[in-house]
Amino acid sequence: MFAETEWTPEGVKAFADRFGSLGGDVASLIQIQPDVHRPSYLSQREPRRKWADEIATMRAAVRLWEYARHDDAEGLSGLGLRWRGETGIEINPGPEAARDEPGLPHTWIASTHLGDDVLARFVPGDLVSPALHHVQRTVNDKMERRASPRLLWTEGRSQLGMRLVPGSLIGALWLQFARAIERDNEFRQCAECGIWFELSPQTARSHKQFCSNACRTKAYRKRQAEAARLHAEGQSIEDIAGALESEPDTVRGWIARKLGSGDPPQSGAG
Question: 219 and 133: one domain?
């Protein structure tokens, strides 16, 4: 998931290598002069600072949304969301959090000094509604000019339908987040490959741990191999089962298949 990407050079490169450049307004045109004997030309570059700002903004929005959708006022408070008396609502994570979240300075969600009626929409002390308001405003701002409605043919070209189409990867990422909010979806990190995948009643079981059958199979084979390794080191079936969070009979079967033996090892055998 983009929000969990590290904004270090290594983290940015790993994401870009896998999914491509963010594009859109993240990219900047710069003039390249190879040397005095060749003409200059324009090239696109995406400064890491812009990547960091996008990652940090989405990370904060995702965290606010996750706490707000579960009515977790304590979690929202931990992110720095608070009322300043009756004069305003702010996000002020403090100096340590500010260093860890580039591009996210102190932010007012609503305040009397802003000259609008936003503050009056909230009940004093409530953190959930202001958090959702801030997420809504952030997502709308980030999708501005990055995703546009298009009249496109449906599959089979049977009829025309309205679609919201991103113009770049960064637009697609924010559109994906907006749709996740709309559908109240959750995301989980694959226990094998680490990729984030959508988890919702329509798309996956609530206990699903892997993004694909391939990852589930790979993880299963790793557990079998680990069981055989621990058995070869002299650990008991019960200890192995406990370490791998499995049942002793299952572990016996794994070891027997790994060793090519028809007789499963006995409990306590080394």
Answer: no
Q: What is the pLDDT of residue 34?
A: 66
Claim to verify: residue 131 and residue 64 sit in the same structural domain = yes
CA distance linking residue 169 with residue 48, whole number of Å: 16
Residue 229 included in any domain: yes
Residue with tokens 């977790």: 72
Residue range(s) defining the domain that contains residue 67: 48-147
Q: Which long-range contacts (CB under 8 A, 24 or more apart) does 251-256 make?
A: 251/227, 254/223, 254/224, 254/227, 254/228, 255/227, 255/228, 255/231
> Count of domains in the chain?
2
- CA dist 147 and 49 (Å) reads 22
How much is the average pLDDT of 230-239? 84
Higher pLDDT residue, 181 or 99?
181
- Are 26 and 172 in contact by the 8 Å Cβ rule? The answer is no
Q: Which residue has the tokens 């202001």?
A: 130
DSSP symbols for 180-239: HHHHT-EEEE-TTT--EEEE-TTTS-TT---SSHHHHHHHHHHHHHHHHHHHHTT--HHH
116: DSSP letter: S
Amino acid at 91: I
In a domain, 15, yes or no: no
Task: For strands 107-111 and 147-153, give the pairing.
Answer: unpaired
The pTM of the full predicted model, rounded to 2 decimals, is 0.70
Provide the token pair at 203: 């798309």
8 A C-beta contact, residue 135 and residue 65: yes
